[in-house]
Amino acid sequence: MAIVAVALEVPISRLFDYSADEPLATGQRVSVPFGRRQLVGVVVGHPARSDVPAGQLRPITAALADMPPLPAEWLSFTEFASEYYQQPRGELMMTALPPRLKRATPLRRKPVLAEASGQAWSFVCDRTPTPAQAGAIETMGAALDRNATFLLFGVTGSGKTEVYLHLIARVLEQGRQALVLVPEIHLTPQLQRHFAERFPGARVAVLHSSRAAVERVEGWIGAQSGSAQIVLGTRLAVFTPFARLGLVIVDEEHDASFKQQDGSRYSARDLAVYRAHAAGIPVVLGSATPALETWSNALKGRYNLVTLAERAVPGATMPRIEVVDMRKDAIEHGLTGRLLAAIDTRLARGEQALVFLNRRGYAPVLACGACGWVASCVRCSAHTAVHLKEQRLRCHHCGYESVIPRNCPDCGNVDLHPFGRGTERIEAALAARFPHARLARVDSDSMRRKGEWERTHAEIRDGAINLIVGTQMLAKGHDFPGLTLVGVVNADAALFATDYRAPERLFAQLLQVAGRAGRARLAGEVLVQTRYPEHPLYRAVIAGDFAGFAGSELEERKRAGFSPAVAEALLRAEASSRSAALGFLREAAAHAPDANGRVTLYDPVPMTLSRLAGWERAHLLVQARARGVLQRFLAEWRSRLEAQRTPRGVRWHFDVDPIEF
Ligand SMILES: [Zn+2]
Ligand SMILES: [Zn+2]
Which of 203, 246, 320, 369 is the most exposed place for a label (fewest CB within 10 A)? Predict the structure, then answer.
């Protein structure tokens, strides 16, 4: 009989011992009894003896031999992630596994043996890299045999994808695999097409949460066995096991969606950097607007900066960005005369125009003019948005829905008004103003049906649609050659947000969406409607001056004592009442380890969105100058908190390197 230590999906930082008749490999999935349930876990150790008294040690139910054990590199990688992010190891590990592998019924497939890498593929190089691209390929291609972190800082349209493809080709030539992470599911089909066209014969595994369970498992096993040469996916793909990983690419590395915000909280971008380091391979972080943390690492020389300063298509210039002063221009349904005239011109010339607005629905607020009643979510501290086409009020935070009331529930007034504008309302205004335009709305409401986005994307590309209103879904990574005008509506809202990351996000978003204009030989124009045309952020956007903007933001963060000048973590608590959440945090602070003044704990405060889906939320910010100091402090604090009894109805977790406050 052997004793095995098993990691299970439970919210406690410990392993569980079981007995097994035969020796089991580390990384082996097993089905075990846990209380009255059966759980699937992973064998992570072979203790010589157990604290569980002999005779009480329960035997495993079954060893799941439907796939080879998870590799050692994967086990140590997930262990690092759980320690760094202060998450229970079993919980993090199980989050990383495709859901199908967490079920005790074995996969109906033959056990996969390590497959040979001799699959036939070729690299189709049908266009010549520009001198700038060739330089970038040479610089990074020379480092394929060792660990290095590259920041590929390339303006929009500079052809970062072409650089990725050449690097991947070299890695595949060596018989190794490449991992490519993108922020959004919507970006995978186009990259998948690129890979299929440029690497005929290569097997590409696509991994994201909307993928069918079977496909996810097949992709996962293909990567682990080495038969899939390229893995393309969203943040969860960072946890894919590989046989011979040779290169990691994180495209649009600044994007907030690389950070998992619930359950096991981790940054796929930062984990990619760690994983490449541990594996001794290079990692490429690509962006036109790098995260300030990344930029700061490049300035300090920790990351290698590789720049693409020009657009790749000959003759394509950067779009001209201008602000339109809303105080001086006539406004029709939230759209300035200047923007409407510019759209007119584009449509007359047979070109395309995009109106960008990061707010879906018809209007963000429904209110009563008589008594001041405002429609709010019953579960969150937030207003519900008006969705006129569906005749619904909807909470954009928790999904709560209700019908639009005919009259005010407080005073009976029938004259309820929608305030503010969302994409649906702008769409209606554009349809009335440009009745002959072929108009489409692109947001997560209109693109909900499977295949809808692929179809609309194709219609925009081939010109069947010539006027688009859309959210950030359109801002990232898409290439529409006929699009020559971008109008930005309602950007000002982000100028005065309390979150210190708001300016960074707004700058990135404006440059990204501006980057959609004029990518081919047609000149692009971007009009940003604002009431604050002199604001320094807009000045920097107009000048396309990322380095200048980042420099002043980093100075500001240093003065104010925010990331990346300091390392940060939050202890978050959720409870049915605000006082219970705050009370737990005060109590937790009283039990925090002594760090000799090298760690600062701030007072607990309610979160900006203090109530979400019925939970009152509060947090406590922790800062330290040195990351190592913070890590040791958090580990000790977590073990103290886990040793104590958490009050009933309170749940808590750490958020390391938080991006949401
Ligand atoms: Zn009323
Ligand atoms: Zn809600």
Answer: 369
